[in-house]
Design brief:
There is one protein chain. With about 475 residues, the chain is α+β, with helices and mostly antiparallel strands. It starts with a helix and ends in a 20-residue tail after the last helix. The protein contains 16 helices and 18 strands. Helix 1 packs antiparallel against helix 3 and helix 13 runs antiparallel to helix 14. It has five domains: about 90 residues, Uridine Diphospho-n-acetylenolpyruvylglucosamine Reductase, domain 2 (2-Layer Sandwich); about 120 residues, 2-Layer Sandwich (Uridine Diphospho-n-acetylenolpyruvylglucosamine Reductase, domain 3), CATH 3.30.465; about 110 residues, 2-Layer Sandwich (Alpha-Beta Plaits); about 90 residues, Alpha-Beta Plaits (2-Layer Sandwich), CATH 3.30.70.2740; about 40 residues. The structure holds flavin-adenine dinucleotide.
Length: about 475
Amino acid sequence: MLAANLITELKKIVGGQNILTSKEDMTTYSYDGTAFWSHMPDVVVLPTSAEEISRIMKLANREQIPVTPRGGGTNISGGSVPIKGGIVLCTTRMNRILEINKTNLTVTAECGVVLQDLNLALAKEKLFFPPDPQSFFACTLGGNAAENAGGPYCVKYGVFKQYLLGMEVVLADGTIMKLGGLTAKNRTGYELMMLMTGSEGTLGIITKMNLKVIPAPPAAQTVLAIFDDIGQGIQAVPNIMDAGIIPAKVEFVDNFILGRIEDLFKLGLPKDAQVLLMLQVDGSPAGVATETEQMVEILKKSGARLIKPAKDAQESAFFWKARSGGFAAIYSSARTVFAEDVTVPRDKLVVFLKRLSEITKETGIDINIIGHAGDGNLHPSVGTDPRDKEHFARAMDTIDRIINMALELGGVLSGEHGVGLDKQRFLKRAMDPAAVELMKKIKAILDPNNILNPGKIWEEEAKDGG
Ligand SMILES: Cc1cc2nc3c(=O)[nH]c(=O)nc-3n(C[C@H](O)[C@H](O)[C@H](O)COP(=O)(O)OP(=O)(O)OC[C@H]3O[C@@H](n4cnc5c(N)ncnc54)[C@H](O)[C@@H]3O)c2cc1C
């Protein structure tokens, strides 16, 4: 618990209306999208400017109070859980889009802007910001930058870091620092902005950013393809890429999630099918027509049982709404779900899926899969119940095997969700120890009192069994 005088000091900084101290209010900020990790904060502050954040950080640094930055709290690695208590610094009241510049193709926005609000504002200007984590209705730009978020569009358009031009950050000691700018090119000094990107709230609080946007593609076509065979379904993805087509999105849905989606959205898909691929090509109308034709041909040759192009933009939007419900299907399938984030090179997807089914046979634990097939980022998910110790142990063993297998295939531990609390026990296996040591040194320079999101990324690695 924080001393009363410190709460009073915080109230002076942000105002009484921007501070939460009751158990009922703070419970909402004690967990995130993982539904496994939770810890109560001592206080929640909702600042409205970088200057307020600077004053909060000066106070926290002086008193050595842990500060957990938080945007929408949608992250699925435990990153926004205040595991050491202290202050949750939630940015959702810093939610102004400050400028959309059509000549520069840039947008300047505060960190608490919800991604969907940005998308709606850009759509009015016929502009497009591609990174699309499927939590877009609730996640914030600050959280997206701190996780270097991805999503379905990233197969063609890249992840969040590829759109960052400039950034304002508040450091652990309260310094307000500006990085980058508004230009497409900038080779001035070290890429400190990239250091902040993906740093999961451990190095600074991102308060404002300049993002690159692009003109919205004039045409797009969504195609659904159903396969009876998992191997054929996933092989279709490299087949399409090998033909020189880079779809805007290539999403993979397994039989279990397909069934759930069909129950809810009634897309007219056969529930006995093993794989649903959801693809989209975009660009000029003529290019889209040609690529759709080529893609459909490749899908047929790859063994698709049913191919269903969207009739129009409305049906296409409905298909993608169904896709974004896929994670809800997974999360409602068990008390606790671990949505893994391993990512493998595209040419290893077929063997990756084959090995997943072997792991299920070995451990007796089902693995559900929905994810970004075009990126090799398939999110194998394991459902369990920590109260059932025997099942939980087998689920943990299953996760262990999935991660080892993905690393053996030349993959990575996390494609887009970050390490947070969830994956730190695997860090030693997944990263060069020299790189981990360098990260720790950087952290010690920027945050010598270890107050920014302490307990995240590596501090629990002593528990690593591997
Ligand atoms: C249904 C669902 C679907 C998802 N789909 C995707 C997906 O397709 N792709 C993907 O990449 N992710 C996905 N995610 C994960 C998550 O939504 C993203 O990581 C998102 O970027 C988190 O944003 P947020 O605002 O909710 O951040 P939070 O969860 O609040 O925080 C995430 C991390 O960033 C830190 N942080 C937050 N704000 C700041 C700030 N201003 N400055 C510094 N650090 C900060 C926090 O401390 C924490 O470590 C999904 C999650 C859910 C629940």
